[in-house]
Amino acid sequence: MEYTSQMKAPSNLITGDVRTKIRSMILDSEFRPGQRLIEDELIRLLNVGRTPVREALLILQGEGFIARHRGWEVQGVDHLEVQAIFESRAAIEAETARLAARKITPQACDALAALIEQMTPESHRPRRVLNRLNTEFHERVAKAADNVVLAQFHERTQFHYWALRVPVMFSDEQLVATNHEHRELLAALRAHDEDAAERLARAHVETTRAIVEPALAR
């Protein structure tokens, strides 16, 4: 198997950087659930030594991103876990948005607004790019919440979320609807309206759940 990325990372990457790069490729669906991760190929791809790759894979295994079954592979999500995953995601997103509304800066809001403008269907960006932008949007909201422990929970449920969405193709109408919800959430954050931000964040997860669950049942 040959990975498609043409980017070469600096040779002095430490284990944490390697872990971050592999995790990003999983979240961006460059590495999909069930795909094997071969150490020698990762070494060539990231231009690093064997030790940081092995250490990064062990960290990712502990975090639930990958598993070891006669070799490393990206961890999938059992569809029976869908309800629990979305319930957890809704609770974490809601509390994250509440804290973000309390603490967010105008500069952080402007950055979120810029991301929203890049996620319109009219931009004609590939879906994997839209996925990446959406991930960045929610990561920035989590960063604005400024809570290290909550950020760790947010990161973990984010992986489950994208693993579930791999087989789902969102229509342009659905993309418009979800981006409208992004705009509403941003307005609540700008206004420092904690109740509205919490409510809108929870509703946003439920909107996605309503799209994803029927697709997974096919």
UniProtKB/TrEMBL annotation:
Keyword presence, Transcription regulation: yes
Which PROSITE patterns does this entry report, sorted A to Z?
A: HTH_GNTR (PS50949)
| GO molecular function per UniProt | DNA binding; DNA-binding transcription factor activity
* InterPro entries attached to this UniProt entry: GntR_C (IPR011711), TF_FadR/GntR_C (IPR008920), Tscrpt_reg_HTH_GntR (IPR000524), WH-like_DNA-bd_sf (IPR036388), WH_DNA-bd_sf (IPR036390)
Keyword terms: DNA-binding, Transcription, Transcription regulation
**Protein's UniProt keywords contain Transcription regulation:** yes
All copies of domain HTH gntR-type, residue ranges: 12-82
> Domain of life, per the record?
Bacteria
User: PANTHER family of this UniProt entry?
Assistant: GLUCONATE OPERON TRANSCRIPTIONAL REPRESSOR, TRANSCRIPTIONAL REGULATOR, GNTR FAMILY
Q: What is this protein called?
A: GntR family transcriptional regulator
Q: Which organism is it from?
A: Pandoraea nosoerga
